[in-house]
Design the sequence.
């Protein structure tokens, strides 16, 4: 708003919370057919994120382990409150939550 520009080192960004009304994830190609997993992530900061991740891979490669091995650095997690973009380099633990 004040015209200033700030640059951040991407490697040091752990997560970014998007405003609740943001639908950025839903415009990704394949969103409607992606496999979804409800997960909890422990971040390097000690913060835990619980939400849903979408895996945009063929069914035979749409497991959570395939998602974890993906080369994509920044990934979306849809929580009840908003969408979070997480830096996969800062994910310490990734667990699937069954029956949620």
Sequence:
């Amino acid at each position: 708003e004040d015209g200033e520009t700030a640059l951040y080192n991407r490697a040091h960004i752990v997560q970014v919370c998007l405003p609740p009304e943001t639908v950025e994830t839903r415009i990704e190609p394949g969103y409607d057919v992606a496999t979804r997993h409800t997960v909890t992530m422990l971040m390097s900061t000690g913060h835990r994120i619980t939400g849903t991740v979408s895996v945009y891979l063929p069914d035979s490669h749409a497991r959570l382990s395939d998602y974890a091995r993906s080369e994509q650095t920044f990934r979306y997690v849809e929580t009840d409150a908003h969408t979070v973009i997480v830096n996969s380099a800062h994910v310490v633990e990734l667990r699937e939550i069954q029956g949620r």
In short: Helices lie at 64-69. Strands lie at 15-17, 35-43, 48-55, 74-78, 83-87, 91-96. The longest helix spans residues 64-69.
